[in-house]
Every structure is written in structure tokens, then in C-alpha cells.
Write a structure and sequence with these properties.
single chain; 566 residues; Immunoglobulin-like; eight-stranded mixed sheet; six-stranded mixed sheet; 11 helices; 24% helix; binds zinc ion
């Protein structure tokens, strides 16, 4: 997901009012955190994902194999009719009841277990079948229901209108799929899905995977979409509106060709054609760095929707808000980010929401990698600097506070940037490829990633990940001062003092580049810093005019010089 808050002044107020949290980008609005405005929504989102009641202990041992979702949209009544069939490995073998997530306001008219009506109970967001006497390896649960799905979180299910015409869209992340279909709403329980959307025949209905067929009956049309790859429930999406479709073709390194499908509102068709024109180049670049696009037998698609806070990486069909299609590529970073999620988040899924930085940090760093590829090293540095703020001061793993805060995105990206420095370019990109190959179509935890990093680099990275990911929170703060004196002809001694001034984690350990320069000379040294206070002497062949730390921006740190040495 990518949420824009205060990106350009022109849409300042609109975006401010519709955003949920401050992921600051592009311009330096880093210090403005619209916390007060969005506190309510943030709290709600946080409460639910952290609520262990939502995912019960029994659920974490359930394995869904397939979802068959038949969703009829009754847009005038703002209701849906669902006929959902879930195939799962029989939990009875583990003496478990069948527990699924499903919001209680959805009225169930019939529930069948392997074809027979069965008793069930409900609570706020569960559907529980306690008596499961079926002895087969798999059980098939069919639920027929009706109701108006709650619009929770980031617009879990929306009946909306654009220029007077109905637009239906969903955005489940993180724990809202069960507002509109019964499911085991855990990112690590991936399953195949067939999704049937029925709406007025004039509407185009879009979802994950490939379009199998469209069937017409009376004034209605049913679009059948099918996934060939497993999908997490939070990535399942439906969109249904008056869409214009335009397409493109991507040919992978291996010669496989794939359809690119873009569903946009008529007004935005020409702008979208300009904005989306470079998707093929981005695909090719990511393929060259990470490995083949993981959904090559399906598609990559983008659908316009009315969530006006950014975009969401629904598997093979990214949703993008109308405000972010401009015809001037103003939000290219969002498009790069969502496409990168198809490697990071979608193919390699998070083991749990505690690992969400593996989604957002990776997608955010992928933006910087693409800019580096497009415009060179300075562009990488300026992109990383634009993603720095001393307010990104939360722990990344199992974060406190918002699951989708600027810390998760930007500090997450910085960790990868620093890892690249720590292990070197060659190892870094080997790590990314190996991690992708090992965990694609599955899920990975932070520990899984650390293991890959250590195996490939042959380095002990315990301290690195503890300070930047699993324990450390506060931004590394460095204060330094320096002075020099001439010790003999042409030789100068520089005394450098470096202090770490952050409070909650110390000392950080890191490599630090120190650059000494005069008008005509420049020399850099790299030191390993592993103490709260360090005093280091250097002998130079020239009289220094300036001493700079971390000149090339490799460190997620706030650096201040206390006094000039002259
Ligand atoms: Zn994202």
C-alpha cells in the first residue's frame, strides 16, 4: 500500500483530509504529521490488527486450499449476496473446530459442511462450526449470505459513486476481508481463488488473476476471474464500474509474454495512458534485479478506484485513486511501489503483520532502486534523503503504533540501503534474488530474511538487525566536533570526537565514512563505530577546511556538527 499525504500543494487540503497517515514524500513536509486528524482511523486500524481475538489460536492452524467467491452486487440497495465455498484441510484431524473470520452483520441464510446443513455460531467477526464429524481429508464449507458490508479500515468494501455512476471497490488490508466474505484472514494462509462478480451488464467487473469468462443473464453480467497462484485474503479485491480498458504486452527475459490490463474511468483514459506507459520498463528492471515477475501466467493490471489516499497492491490488479492519475507522471513513485509489491508482499508474503516492514520497506526501497537505475547514483541518494526523518523512530518488527506509519515504509527502506552497504552490492542483490526464489508464493518472517542475509553474505548480522529492526527504535543521533593542528611541514593532525546522543538504544554499531576536504583536496576514511563516544586522530597531508560524516548518505542517522575545528 502506498499512502500519500502531503505531496503537492495543489492537492494539499484534499489529500490531507482523506489520508490516514503521514507517509511524507517528494517535498520536505516530513515534519508535518497529521496525527490529530487521523487519530481515530489509525487507532481503529491498529486495534483490530493487534487484537488477538480476531485471529484465534485455532485459526492459525487452519489451511484453506481454495476460495470460490460468488458475489452479486446489489448496488441500488448497497447490499451484496454471497455464495462462498471454501475448501480446507480438515481441522478435525487436529481436534479443532472450524473457525473463520466473518463479520456478524452479514446474514447467513444457509451453511453446508460437505453438502449437509450444519449448526454454527457467530460472534463479532467469527463464524464457528463446533461439531465437525466429517472424517474426510478436506472439508468443503458453503456459506450463503446477504448484507451491507461494513466500510472499515481503509475502505474495506465501498458502494460509491463517480460522476453519478456506481463504483464498487474493496481494500481489505490488513484484516477486513471478512467484512465481505468468510475466510481465514491470515496473510500466511494463501489459497487459490475463483471470483465471480455479478453486476448490471453495463458494468465492468475486475479482480485478481485471469478473466475466464463473462456470462450474461437478463440485465446482469457475471465476470469469472481465477488465480493460478495462491493469494492471501488481504490481497483479494473486486472492482466494478464503468471502466475503459486499455492493454499492453510485456515480454519477460524468458520470452513469456503477459497482458497488462488497465481499467480506468473514461475521463482519465488519456492521462492514464501517459502515466502507465513506463510500467513495462519498470517490470523489466525489477525482473533483472529480483527475478521473473511472479504472476507471469496471470497479468499485471491497474484499476482506478475511489480510495483517495494512494494505491493498493492487490495481487495482479493494483488499485489507484483517481487523484493519482494526472497525465504528468506525478505519482510515478506510487506505481513503482505497487508493482514492486508483486515481488515483496504479494509473491513473498509476510508471515504475520509483525513483518509488514518486509512488504513496505522493500517496496519503498524498490522505488529508490528504480530511480538509481533511471538517473544514477545521485538520484538514489536524493531519494533516500527524501525518505529520512528523525520522527521515523519506531521499532520496525512488531511495531508499536500504526502498522502503516512512515517508519515502516521509510526506515524499512533505509534498513535495506544500510544492508547493501554492510554486505556490498553483489551480495545485496544476491540476497534479494535468493530471498525471492526461496519464499515466492509462500510467506517469510523477519527471521527468514535475516537467515538468507547471513547465509549469502557469510556475515553475522545479529547486531545489525537487532539495532535497526527487532529492538532499536530511536533514530541514531550523532554529534561530532573536530580540530586540527599542524604537526610538521605539510602534515596536519585532526582530532575527531563522535558522540551518539540517542537515549533508547546504545551504542549503535555501524561503518562511518569520514570525509576531509580543502579547496583542492578530498580524502575519505571509513571507520567502524561501536561505542557511544569515540575520539579518533587522523594525519592528513593537507590542511582540512571541512570534515563531513556520511557524505554519501548510507546511514539512517541525524548528524550534527558541534563546532568547527578552525
Ligand atoms: Zn506499500
Amino acid at each position: 500500500m502506498n499512502k500519500k499525504s502531503l505531496v503537492i500543494i495543489a492537492i494539499f487540503s484534499l489529500t490531507l483530509l482523506t489520508s490516514f497517515c503521514g507517509v511524507m514524500k517528494v517535498l520536505d513536509y516530513k515534519n508535518i504529521q497529521p496525527k490529530v486528524l487521523f487519530a481515530g482511523v489509525r487507532t481503529f486500524v491498529n486495534d483490530l490488527f493487534s487484537d488477538t481475538e480476531y485471529v484465534t489460536a485455532e485459526q492459525s492452524r487452519i489451511d484453506v486450499l481454495h476460495y470460490d467467491l460468488k458475489i452479486a452486487l446489489l448496488t441500488k440497495k448497497e447490499k451484496i449476496k454471497g455464495d462462498v465455498t471454501i475448501t480446507l484441510l480438515n481441522p478435525i484431524t487436529n481436534n479443532l473446530p472450524v473457525v473463520l473470520n466473518f463479520y456478524e452483520n452479514m446474514e447467513v441464510s444457509e451453511l453446508l459442511l460437505n453438502g449437509s446443513e450444519t449448526e454454527f455460531t457467530r460472534d463479532d467477526y467469527h463464524l464457528i462450526i463446533n461439531k465437525n464429524e466429517v472424517q474426510t481429508d478436506t472439508v468443503v464449507i458453503n456459506v450463503k449470505y446477504e448484507g451491507t458490508p461494513k466500510r472499515l479500515g481503509f475502505d474495506s468494501f465501498s458502494f460509491d459513486k463517480y460522476k453519478g455512476e456506481s463504483v464498487v471497490y474493496t481494500l481489505n488490508e490488513p484484516t477486513y476481508a471478512s467484512t465481505w466474505f468468510p475466510c481465514n484472514d491470515i496473510p500466511s494462509d494463501k489459497a487459490f481463488a475463483d471470483i465471480y462478480i455479478t453486476n448490471d451488464s453495463s458494468k465492468t467487473s475486475v479482480s485478481n488473476g485471469i478473466l475466464v469468462e463473462e456470462k450474461f443473464a437478463d440485465d446482469l453480467k457475471t465476470a469469472h476471474w481465477k488465480t493460478i497462484y495462491r493469494i492471501s485474503t488481504y490481497l483479494i479485491a473486486i472492482y466494478s464500474a464503468d471502466y475503459e480498458l486499455f492493454t499492453d504486452t510485456f515480454v519477460s527475459e524468458s520470452g513469456d509474454s503477459m497482458n497488462l490490463q488497465y481499467y480506468v474511468f473514461e475521463d482519465d483514459l488519456e492521462d492514464a495512458k501517459l502515466d502507465f506507459a513506463n510500467q513495462k520498463d519498470i517490470l523489466a528492471f525489477f525482473e533483472s534485479k529480483f527475478g521473473e515477475y511472479p504472476f507471469i501466467k496471470e497479468k499485471y493490471g491497474i484499476a482506478e478506484f475511489l480510495w483517495q489516499s494512494g494505491a493498493m497492491e492487490h495481487q495482479t490488479i493494483t488499485g489507484i485513486g483517481t487523484n493519482f492519475i494526472t497525465g504528468r507522471k506525478m505519482f510515478n513513485d506510487i506505481l513503482i511501489h505497487e508493482l514492486a509489491h508483486h515481488w515483496w508482499g504479494n509473491a513473498v508474503g509476510p508471515m504475520s503483520w509483525k513483518d509488514v516492514w518486509l512488504n513496505e520497506g522493500f517496496a519503498t526501497y524498490s522505488e529508490a532502486l528504480y530511480y538509481e537505475h533511471e538517473s544514477g547514483r545521485n538520484s538514489l541518494i536524493s531519494t533516500m534523503n527524501s525518505k529520512f526523518s528523525k520522527y521515523y523512530d519506531k521499532r520496525l518488527y512488531d511495531t508499536e503504533g500504526s502498522l502503516f506509519s512512515g517508519t515502516i515504509y521509510n526506515k524499512g527502506a533505509w534498513v535495506l540501503h544500510m544492508l547493501r552497504r554492510e554486505v556490498g552490492d553483489e551480495n545485496f542483490f544476491k540476497i534479494l534474488r535468493n530471498y525471492f526464489e526461496t519464499y515466492k508464493y509462500k510467506n517469510a518472517s523477519t527471521n527468514d530474511f535475516i537467515k538468507v542475509c547471513e547465509n549469502i553474505s557469510d556475515k553475522n548480522l545479529k547486531q545489525f538487525f537487532e539495532q535497526w529492526v527487532t529492538i532499536g527504535s530511536e533514530v541514531l543521533q550523532i554529534e561530532y566536533s573536530w580540530k586540527f593542528n599542524q604537526i610538521k611541514d605539510g602534515k596536519f593532525k585532526v582530532e575527531l570526537e563522535i558522540k551518539q546522543t540517542q537515549n533508547d538504544y546504545e551504542p549503535y554499531e555501524f561503518s562511518l565514512d569520514i570525509n576531509f576536504s580543502s579547496e583542492t583536496e578530498s580524502i575519505s576514511k571509513t571507520l567502524k563505530i561501536d561505542k557511544k563516544e569515540s575520539k579518533i586522530d587522523f594525519i592528513l597531508d593537507f590542511k582540512p577546511a571541512e570534515v563531513k560524516l556520511d557524505k554519501d548518505s548510507w546511514l539512517f542517522a541525524e548528524i550534527d556538527m558541534n563546532e568547527n575545528g578552525n
